[in-house]
Amino acid sequence: MVPPYPPTRTVDAYEDIAGVRLPDPYRWLEEETDEVTHWQRQQARLAEDHVKEWPHYDTLRELVHRYSVDRFPNMPRYAGGRWFRADTPVKGRAPRVVVADEPFGAGEVVVDLADLHTVDTYLSWQSPAPDGRTLAIGICTDGSEQNTIRLIDVDSRQHHDHVPEQVLYDSWTGGVAWLPDSSGFYFYALTGPVRELDLAVFRHDLDKEPPTAPEPIPVPAGGPDYTAIQVSRDGRWIVAVHGLATPSPVAVLDTHDPAPEWRPFVTDVSGTVAGHVFGDTYIALTDVDAPRGRIVAIPLDSADANDTSAWVDLVAASDAVLRSITAIGDVLYVTEFVDTYAKVRIVDRTGADLGTVALPGSGALYELPFALMSVLSPPHPDEFLFGFSTLASSWAIYRHRLADNEVELLRPAEVTVPGAIVEDYFATSPDGTAIPYHILRLKSTVYSMPHPTLLYAYGGFNVPWLPMFPGAMASFAAAGGLFVHAHLRGGAEYGKDWWDAGRMANKENCYADLYAVAEDLITRGVTTTDLLGVTGGSNGGLMAGVAITQRPDLWRVGVPRVPFLDVLGALRDPYGEGVVTMEFGDPTDADEVRRLSRFSPYHLVRDGTEYPAVYVDAGATDPRCPPWHARKWAARMQAAQAGDAPVLIRIWDDVGHGWATPALTMVTEYTEWLAFVMLHLGLIPSAG
């Protein structure tokens, strides 16, 4: 039955964009007023009561606690002959940074965040200086991802008094980029209020006062985007790489010049150019003229680095999708995808083949979501450390040395799903495109009858949806359900063409792919519409919202998490405007605005429609998908729902987009929304 929702008023407001006028009756829920806070807390109590009345809640929480591991592994960092790693000895305890002679050796604690006496302090990143004598860390205290720099003397454990005062927006540019002589570093930070999203690169020298003025780097004009700094091993070349989804080395600084100044480099190509400095050459993986990627060499003193005909091919394009390169000594470890699964090969700086790395199975190699992130962390000079995961097992850490061509296990997977298997399938989208997906299930969950099924996907921003361990969501498979991990167009699993086929004017392909996977599961007889749920986070939260409103007949339950649900209202926010113009469409064109409204979940809600059971999960301090997206859509859905299924919303205090959520808070958050899903799909977790 539909619970008694808190009273929710409407207002006579309209969205007017490029001459297109659309009603916006819940505009008031965008504000952070006392009235909104009261409404939000009433809704939270309603949602919490609904799931905690389920008699299997505590059993599920035990499962969720077991499978809640870090989304990405805390990879050790090598500096000064030793290894630095983030370490959490007990789940829920504040993390610490340990320095040891081996990547996971016993070592000594450099800094323990528990000693800072700050509630829910989160370690956003850690970066030791090349000489290993100074450790830089980022500290977040409210889940928002905004963090401040701390500097610690490794030997004395003393904190530096003079540190930069600027606030880093997040950890996505690696925290700090040290100079090779350890005398200072570059960092990317806010120059004003968070909402205005003005950011710039700063340089901090340890023997000088903290910086007040940003570096004069000539970055391209346009909306907000990320800029990260790379420094060559000898310190001669400093490269500014700009663009989160399609990074490019837009500017260089030659410190050997008598009067060094930043000058433009690769500024006028369409695509990704992401790599490393080798001597006086920038060796990069690019999708320019090669949608699945090739590796090229670009002289750093080039008269015109935009002349792609002068780039030297080192590794030609192939059927494999080249994803990233890691420079280890004089060789490159090249990560690639073959039908979504990871492969690694090794080439020298001329592109000559030096063999492959034997991976432990079919799965995912650790990488952060966006292409820019893959070129930031300085590696060991002659050891390739990598994380490997499958849908059934969490991250294990391995080491490969080219000299002996051996793969050494350094740290085993923290958890696996006992008795689980992974199966690979393809669905066919309406235009004939094959859409890959995987099913994680127990061997004992046989297909003689339909089963509760949870479909999880993303499909956007040139991000590959890696077939890696799903963390707490593994509880769904462990309880006997089918967990489905789908690869939709808009991602990067098959290169730039796959991205372009699911963005801008082609965005609806992403949702058509999702429905094709759902219908393929039903056709195979493994589930039914009464046993099928859909979820996703961020852009995947948008996807879930679209799925619920476009195809309410297809699902029994839907959970948009940290979602982007008002595509047009987002244009009033600098971050939201950047998201829309990068991925969805041109808001200055009336026809484009009408197209955007056709997949904006807030504008898709129709009164008198029978919608599935809905649980909207969001964070109060989310800087990317602010909680008003969730509030407005949930209010609209509650008013429009004609069926008996509940529409609930839970917004968590001191939780953001999920990148800085304390472990135990995340356990509770995942337990509540998974309990909602299992309750409405009739899936009962076992205490064993």
From TrEMBL:
Keyword match Amino-acid biosynthesis: no
GO MF, one annotated term: oligopeptidase activity
Domain of life: Bacteria
UniProt-listed InterPro entries: AB_hydrolase_fold (IPR029058), Pept_S9A_N (IPR023302), Peptidase_S9_cat (IPR001375), Peptidase_S9A (IPR002470), Prolyl_oligopep/macrocyclase (IPR051167)
Stretches assigned to the Peptidase S9A N-terminal domain: 6-411
Peptidase S9 prolyl oligopeptidase catalytic domain: residues covered: 471-681
GO biological process: one example: proteolysis
Keyword Ribosomal protein: no
Catalysed transformations (reactions): Hydrolysis of Pro-|-Xaa >> Ala-|-Xaa in oligopeptides
UniProt keyword list: Hydrolase, Protease, Serine protease
Enzyme Commission number(s): 3.4.21.26
Any one annotated GO CC term: cytosol
Pfam family, one: Peptidase_S9
Protein name: prolyl oligopeptidase
